[in-house]
C-alpha cells in the first residue's frame, strides 16, 4: 500500500507538472500565434426576432494551430488573459474586423454592426480608446459599424472608468452590449446610469427554456425590465424553433444561435439571409 501511495503521489506530481508545462507551452505558442498571424475570425449573424432580418454579426476568434487544428477560444482566452497576451490578440481582432468591414461589406446589406468582444483586461487597458481611434482612422471604418460587447464583471469593477470609457466609445458611434447578462452581479439599478444599448442574455438561460419554468420567468422578466430601461435584448444560443417562438412571445428584440447560423468565415456570409421554414 505504501508503494502504491508513493506511486500515486509521484504520478500526481508529474501530472501537476505536466499541466504547468502545457500552460507554458500554450503561452509560448500564443506568442508565436500572434507573430505568425494564426488567428482567424468567424462571424455569427444576429437577427431581429420578429422579421428575421440580419442586423449584425458577432466576431468570434479561432486559432488555426499548425499541429492541433482549429482551437476554440474557451481553450486559450483564459491563458491569454492571465498572461496579458489578450491585449495584443484583442487589437488584432479589432483591426481584423475593421479590415473585413472595409473589404467585404459592399457585398453585405447595410446597415450592419459588427460586434467585438472585449475582455475585462482589454477594457482596463489605458490605451484602449486611443488605439481604437487609431484603427478606425487607419482603416476608415465608421464607428457606427461597430458594437463592443463587455461583460458584467468589466463594467462593475470601476463604475467611473466604465462610464467614461463607454461614453467615449459611443461618441465614436459604436454601440455597447453587456455580454453574458444574468451570469454576473450587475444590477439594473446601476445599468440605468450607464450608456449601454443592449443586453445579451446568456445562453445558459436559453438552453432549457422550453422545459424550465424558472428560466422562462427569468428570461421574460429580464426582457420586460430591460425594455423599461430602453435597452434592447439579444438572446444568444437559440437552437430550437420553440426557443425562438417563446422569445418572440416575450418580445425579445434580437437573437443569435445555431438555429439561424453557426459562426462561419466572412466569405461564407455573402448573400446570407435566414428564411424560416
Ligand atoms: P460569447 O461572447 O458568449 O459568445 C457566444 C458563444 O456561443 C460562441 O462560442 C458561439 O460560437 C457560441 N454559440 C452561438 N450560438 C450558439 C448556439 O446556438 N448553441 C451553442 N451551444 N453555442 C452557440 P465561441 O465562439 O466558442 O466563443 C466562446 C467565448 O470566447 C465567447 O463567448 C467569448 O467570451 C470568448 N471570445 C470569442 N471571441 C473572442 C474575442 O475575439 N475576444 C475575446 N476577448 N473573447 C472572445
Ligand atoms: Ca459575446
Ligand atoms: Ca455567452
Ligand atoms: Ca463570454
From TrEMBL:
Organism for this UniProt entry: Neptunomonas japonica JAMM 1380
Protein name: cyclic-guanylate-specific phosphodiesterase
Intracellular or extracellular location(s): Membrane
Superkingdom in the source lineage: Bacteria
Keyword set, alphabetical order: c-di-GMP, Membrane, Transmembrane, Transmembrane helix
Gene Ontology annotations of biological process type: cellular response to nitric oxide; signal transduction
GO CC field: membrane
Predominant cellular place of this UniProt entry's protein: membrane
